[in-house]
Design a protein that fits this description.
heterotrimer; A mainly beta (217); B alpha+beta (219); C alpha+beta (281); B: 219 residues; alpha+beta; Glutaredoxin; Glutathione S-transferase Yfyf (Class Pi), Chain A, domain 2; 4-stranded mixed β-sheet; 7 helices; 49% helix; 7% strand; C: 281 residues; N-terminal domain of TfIIb; Naphthalene 1,2-dioxygenase Alpha Subunit, Chain A, domain 1; 2 domains; 17 strands; globular; binds glutathione; binds FE2/S2 (inorganic) cluster; binds fe (ii) ion
Chain lengths: 217, 219, 281
Amino acid sequence: MLSDKTGSWTPVALSADLPAGTVMPARTPAGRIALWRSQSGRAAASADRCPHRGMRLSHGFVRGEALSCIYHGWSYARTGNCLRIPAHPGLAPPETIRVETHEVEECGGVIWVAVGVPTAQPPGLEGVAPLRSLTAHAAVAAIETAAGAKAGAGGLVWQAQDAQQIRLLLAPQGDEQTLIHVLLDDNSSLSQRIAASRAVERLRRTAEDLQTKGIAP
Amino acid sequence: MKLYDYVLSPSCYKVRLMAALAGVKLEIRPVDFHPGAEHRGTELLALNPAGSIPILEEGDLILTESAAMLAYLAAKAAPEWLGSGAPEEAARIQQWLSFAHRLTASLGGARLHEMLLRPGDIGALQAQGIAALRELEAGLVEQGLRGMRFLASDQPTVADIACFPYVALAPDGGIPLDPYPAIRLWSRAIRGLDNFIEMPGIHRLHELRPEPHVEPGEV
Amino acid sequence: MMQDAMVDEWYPVGLFSQLDVNGRKTALMGEPIEVALDAEDRAKVTCGDGRTLPVCVRYGHVWSSLGKPQKDLFAIPEADQPGRRLVDVGVIRVRCSPLRAVENFLDIAHFPFVHTDILGAEPHTEVEDYKVEIRQQEDEVWATQVKFYQPKAAKSASGGITTEYMYRVPAPTCSVLYKTCPPRPCEWDVITLFVQPLAEDLCDVWPWMALFDDVTPMTDLIHFQQTIFLQDRSILENQIPRLLPLDPGMEIPTRADLTSVAYRRWLKRHNYTYGAQLVAQ
Ligand SMILES: N[C@H](CCC(=O)N[C@@H](CS)C(=O)NCC(=O)O)C(=O)O
Ligand code: FES
Ligand SMILES: [Fe+2]
């Protein structure tokens, strides 16, 4: 989503779900990534496959400013070059050992990853704050039908019953799954936020029913 | 206190983990669950006619439900794990302790099927497992909104220990944990507790120790 | 599709001690098979198409083949040495290529990160040079003089020691390792990984051991090995791609991986490609 001619930004996770010194799996239209945040707080994204023996890097660990693979401990800088091969402590890893990386931007509490080289910045999300992310086993179209609204450049605006207006950012995950980031007026009270979280669970159920019954367009 | 134990059993691991966190030393009696099916033999059936493990034995007290074992260990050595006694917190603890049985049936059933070739309807087990994980995720999201990192309060309780093992090992049963950010944060918080111990399938958090600086040839 | 040279090999299909007349339904390289005891208490393996398949019983397991094995099952002379305890560890299913399962077994560099505080621990991560060869006469891959520092090398070990290993690949989905034996310094413990290929990306793994250890109860020996293998399982199910890449450009080895390099080369040379990926994707 949010593409221009040269590339696109995908909202992959909420900033709050990626504390300093951790790594998590995520997806972009270009494939699986390992999304991680260094000890000093910088978010980074690499392909979710270690060049050594193919282990998923999202199962790894973050020490300082490097991401390490859980299998043999090879570690990588945010720029993708290999920093350390524990089996050969004296060896400076050659430049040729590197993992593919992606550009990352954080704004409004959402982490965006670039596919290609987008010319514009990801959209600002004024007045709303992220609540949670959840995955639906339903395509974007089924979610739009369930919400009775279409997704635009700033996401989908959904007027839930018994809850205030909710903004949804939809990121297709492949195999008819969609990652939904839920955003809410940043002045919402605790009970409004809990109500919104429950409302989105209902929306997901409706969308998944539509998907399995094949009613969605 | 004697625990009839199997290293690969998430239910037995609940008890080992609680004991480690509470600082209780257990006498471990290994049970040849797989491939030997010793839990269905005469000696163990005499202790637990249900034919399941863990079994915890102390004097003439015999416990065959892991939730009771967690409560016993906590009451004896670390009562803070039983919660503060506030009504809502006490209710949440009971809610998740009961809920844990659904994790055993669904995620545990899928894991036995995928790993140890136990017969079962794998599609149904995985679907029930996903439903249970979603319920836990939603509960943890709401706790997070209330400013609490654990299932019943901002401190870990027996409820967290009752739910953690099957959840952390869900991928063993072919159920990915990728889609659950709140579960990921919660699981990390548990794994980072002082005196936390692992079981096979749950790796060490290597980041908790600094990177060693080794000169070549030094090792 | 061209027949893979692997069809004529022997594969483990069950523990002999657990067979009964009711039989065990399983699979071999995509074909459904049934393993049972016949009226004379002999193992019998039947293919889904009704054929009776070749059978031998060795090292606690029943072995069979979809094709025509050209030679007897490989020998493990130590298995018949008096005084060893023979340990049937039992089956563990893994969603990975059978070849990936074997390759992981040949690797020591992962010990500190995957078998932390048992088979390895930081800062002792260095893999010193060792010897690798393809023995022409036996047609087996061998790695010798492999050394690694281990905090708890075996159930019988009481503290950290530098363990010496030898690795051997006598068949495409089987590996035998020999490792320093704490109670008997002049003998080697034997630990094997017998892998039953169910499909190219799914296997049943049957670890088996022949140890000098008169002290440790059998259940503890089984649990030690199951612990180690379960730690590996969560790695094996998360390697991408599932199949073992035989194209050298696809993954990057170092000196520590020379056994794996020789194994991949040997597989390729023999056209043992069931569970392998030949072209980079
Ligand atoms: N009573 C339950 C039983 C837990 C449970 O399901 N244990 C499994 C092992 S993880 C078991 O013994 N299953 C018996 C069987 O599958 O035959 C508890 O303590 O939570
Ligand atoms: S696979 Fe990542 S370090 Fe070996
Ligand atoms: Fe291993």
